[in-house]
């Protein structure tokens, strides 16, 4: 069970964060590595050897797939569903939304349970290693995977449901249920690795926000989000407000002032209000 990280000797957390930042800036970011470095924030026991073991497990699973199956995208999707969904038992249920482990790749590999996006990461990483034409679709509220050409012949699958095959109409129903509209071109475009990592971190933030006693988890999820090359500027304000809530008034005030500098050029009135929040945070020290 992941625990709140303790301070580590030798700058272990700082070194991992540096590795995370560097991995996020690679020309071709390694999705599995980023998800495992993220998981190490939650689980101090996940060291370099544990990260290697998780990568080896993904390699092992990929080795169980038939090589270049006849039948195109549909064959890849069915083989992944048979291996991961049926034989290995990867899947999800509503209860998995209540567990932090459901967002941590090494725990999903161990428990074979997780959120749709983490199960999709497993599907994509195993399929990619086996040579499949695979990609992720970040549908609102429910991540799925695709095989083949996103703009041509393709098949969609839902790893959360054990790899159940989906038609485009099924995908439209998922979008309608979550967002109340039809899928946009952006929704149906393959998600890049950094978009996926940010969405995983957003899920962790949402999990922690609903549990005030887990503010430390929310804080590290924000810290990692801010290390990504592209992220919403509002996350800096959220981090500042969280620091204030945790009683770290000076750090929160400094963060608010930095965010005010970011927004001042486009929203002067908003920047002024943020600076007032910073002053109020400092006043709490008196």
Automatic annotation (TrEMBL):
Protein SirB1 N-terminal domain location: 73-202
Listed name of the protein: Protein SirB1 N-terminal domain-containing protein
Assigned protein family: Belongs to the UPF0162 family.
Region of interest (Disordered), ranges: 1-24
Pfam families in the cross-refs: TPR_9, Transglut_core2
């Amino acid at each position: 069970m992941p625990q709140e990280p303790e301070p580590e000797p030798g700058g272990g957390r700082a070194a991992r964060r540096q590795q995370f930042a560097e991995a996020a800036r690679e020309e071709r970011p390694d999705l599995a590595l980023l998800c495992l470095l993220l998981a190490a924030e939650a689980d101090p026991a996940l060291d370099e050897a544990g990260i290697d073991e998780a990568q080896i497990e993904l390699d092992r699973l990929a080795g169980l797939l038939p090589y270049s199956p006849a039948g195109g995208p549909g064959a890849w999707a069915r083989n992944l569903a048979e291996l991961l969904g049926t034989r290995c038992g990867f899947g999800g249920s509503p209860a998995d939304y209540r567990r932090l482990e459901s967002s941590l790749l090494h725990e999903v590999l161990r428990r074979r349970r997780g959120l749709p996006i983490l199960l999709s990461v497993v599907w994509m990483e195993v399929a990619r290693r086996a040579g499949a034409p695979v990609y992720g679709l970040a549908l609102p509220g429910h991540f799925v995977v695709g095989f083949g050409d996103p703009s041509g012949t393709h098949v969609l699958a839902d790893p959360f449901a054990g790899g159940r095959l989906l038609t485009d109409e099924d995908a439209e129903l998922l979008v309608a249920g979550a967002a109340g509209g039809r899928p946009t071109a952006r929704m149906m475009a393959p998600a890049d690795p950094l978009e996926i990592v940010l969405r995983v971190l957003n899920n962790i933030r949402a999990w922690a926000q609903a549990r005030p006693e887990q503010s430390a988890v929310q804080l590290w999820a924000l810290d990692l989000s801010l290390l990504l090359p592209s992220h919403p500027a509002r996350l800096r304000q959220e981090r500042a407000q969280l620091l204030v809530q945790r009683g770290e008034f000076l750090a929160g005030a400094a963060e608010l002032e930095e965010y005010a500098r970011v927004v001042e050029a486009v929203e002067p009135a908003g920047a002024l209000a943020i600076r007032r929040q910073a002053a109020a945070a400092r006043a709490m020290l008196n």
